[in-house]
Every structure is written in C-alpha cells, then in structure tokens.
Amino acid sequence: MDGSCCANPVADWTVTIEGEQFREVIRCGSCGTLHANEVIPAPIRWAPQNCAHCGGLMEQDTWRDGAPMVMRCETCELTKQECIDMHRRLATAENGQPGLLVGAVRSLQSGKAVLAIKLATAAAMSGDDPSYARFIRLKAMASGGLTDHALDEAWRWIDEGEDELPAELFDWLAAAEAETGNVPGIRRALETGLRVNPENTAAWTDYGELMLALEEYQKALQAARYGLTNPDPELSERNLAVILEIAEGMYGRELYAEALSAVGHAGDHHMETHVELAWLRARIAAMKNDVETSRQWLQLVLSLEPGHAEAQAAWDKVKPEKRRGWFGFGGGNS
Ligand SMILES: [Zn+2]
Ligand SMILES: [Zn+2]
To answer: Which ligand is located closest to the Cα atom of residue 57?
Structure first.
C-alpha cells in the first residue's frame, strides 16, 4: 500500500473466492480508501497433481511432434516447470530473490494473502520444505479471511495422515478454531496436537482451561498437572487457577476428600508457596476436624501473607492454648 491515502494508513486485506479464483481486496482500515481489487488465479483447493498457477487439470501434451511428452495445464497451458519458473519470477519481483518459501513467508508478513498462497503452494509442489510450505498456505488463507476454508484443508491434511506435520500446525489450528468459537474444533485440535506432541505444556495449559469450562474436572486437573511441569510463571498461574477453581468448587459443595484430591494436583512446591492453596488446605483440614493440620496450614498462610485477615481470625480460634509455658504469647481457646 502506498500510504498516501491518509495520515494513518492501515492495510486491510480480504480475500474471497469467486468461482475458481481468488479476489483480493485491499482497503485502508483508517480512511476506507480502496487500494486494490483484483481477481488473481491461484489454486483454491490443495491438489498437488493440478496446476500450481490456476488449479487446472494437467493433461498430456500431445501436439508437439518429436518433443518429449509433457503435462500441460488445460486451462492456462503452463507446464509444471513453466509454472514454477513463473512463481520464482513473482517471488523475485516481490522480494528480490527467487526463493518460493521465503517469498511466501514475506508476503504473508506483509499481508499479501493471495501472493502468499500462490508462492506457498508452488513451494510445496516443487519440494521446497513441502510440509512447512503447506502450513504457510493455510496461514495465508486464514490471514486473508478464509479461515473456514483453511480449517477444512488443515483437517483433511491431518486426516490423510500421510505427511509429517509441522509442530506449529496444531497450535495454529487450536487458535484458529478458537477464533471461530468452535469449541469441539478447539478440543479436537488440542487433543490431536497433544497426541503428536505430549510435551507441549502450553497446549496442556490451554486444554486444562477448556476442560474446566466444559466441566470435565478430572481431565482439567490432569492437564493442569502436566502444564505445571513448565516452570514459566505465567503458565503456572493459569494451571494453578484451574486447580484452585475446581478444588474450591468441591469445597463449596462440602466434598472435602475430593477438594483435597483436586488440590493435590498442584504438587508440594506450589502448595507451600501459593497462599490461596494453603488457605484452602487449612479450611479443608478444619472441616475434617483435623486441628493440628489446619494449624500448620494457617501458619503457612500467615507466613506467606501476614495480613490475611480470614486466616488470622481462624488462627485466633485454633491456636494452641498456653501450656506449661511453652508458648510465649497469650493463648485462650475462644
Ligand atoms: Zn487511509
Ligand atoms: Zn493452470
């Protein structure tokens, strides 16, 4: 975008599918000026046997006597090689170098969705890191607004089960499904991704939150526990919040054994450093009439947060009586 439309130009790309072609519209998001509106041939469906330029069927070229037989697109008449060469020229014009995949990534970064789709598709078909190139194709479609189309293609790709899938695919898929608000889709993306990569603690964290929202508490607790193996404090907070919410829910319903079991998923380290968890442990112990354990947790809460009013009030009720002069402070079993 030339940026001459207004003081604060913001490129806003949208792509629509018109018959067998893409239409790309570029508008300024600030002032609404229309900067481009064009139909661009590009393969809408992923069909590596078809033409990388227009998606047309390739057919045997028989009309050149004496020349070796080549496959030629029945629509645009390019051979596969001519088609790849043409995309290299496009990449060079755009980025100053002929790399198809690099060109696709850069076009995507600058928001040129259809060019990114074209270059990524050509890269995948020419064997230039095909798996990653297909992933860029999906991202390009989503960035141009064709999210449903990209999601359908992604799921078909996964269901085929033939290619090695890029690790980033599932995180992207879960986020794209979340954007469309499709809860079963988010769930499927996270579950499929976690089967492929069970070490993805950030995905376990997302999954725990999703399971909490779906009230599948055992799955949520399990996921949060896996998520907690990542020491990142931000992830820890999210996983602990899941555990705490479930445990508090159980406590509120007077299910003390279940609350205790839920809170146990936080592990010893967090239990001893997280004031909310310790406070819940103190209350659970009190409800089970285990005064000694309750005292220990109350002491911990008050050492972590000396101004904790509720814990202080509870402590004043259960603190040990002054006996044999062991305790230097005033007792009283009020
Ligand atoms: Zn503008
Ligand atoms: Zn073609």
So the answer is: 2
Residue 233 belongs to some domain of the structure: yes
CA-CA distance, 14 to 184, in Å (whole number)? 27
* 289-304 confidence digits (pLDDT tens): 999 999 999 999 999 9
Number of structural domains, the chain? 2
CA of 143 relative to ligand 1 center, distance in Å: 20
pLDDT in tens, 89-112: 999 998 899 999 999 999 999 889
- Using the mean position of ligand 1's atoms as its centre, give its distance from the Cα of residue 30 in Å: 5
**Measured distance CA(35)–CA(9) in Å, rounded:** 11
Q: Is residue 219 packed enough to be buried (19+ CB in 10 Å), middle (13-18) or exposed (0-12)?
A: middle
Q: Are residues 189 and 231 in the same domain?
A: yes
Ligand whose nearest atom lies closest to the CA of 20: 2
Cα 106 to ligand 1 centroid, rounded to whole Å: 23
How does pLDDT run across 21-77, given as a tens digit for each residue? Answer: 899 998 999 999 998 899 998 899 999 899 999 999 998 876 666 666 788 999 999
Q: Which ligand neighbours the alpha carbon of 76 most closely?
A: 2
Query: Do 246 and 182 belong together in one domain?
Result: yes
Distance in Å, CA 111 to ligand 1 centroid: 16
Choose among 103, 123, 107, 106: nearest CA to 13.
Answer: 107
Find the ligand nearest to 7 CA. 1
What domain range includes position 227?
167-265
Please identify, among 221, 248, 265, the residue that sits at the C-terminal boundary of a domain.
Answer: 265
pTM of structure: 0.80
| Pair 309, 257 in one domain | no
52 located within any domain: no
SS (H, E, C) 62-96: CCCCCCCCEEEECCCCCEHHHHHHHHHHHHHHHHC
Pick the ligand that lies closest to the CA of residue 34: 1
Same domain, residue pair 181 and 257: yes
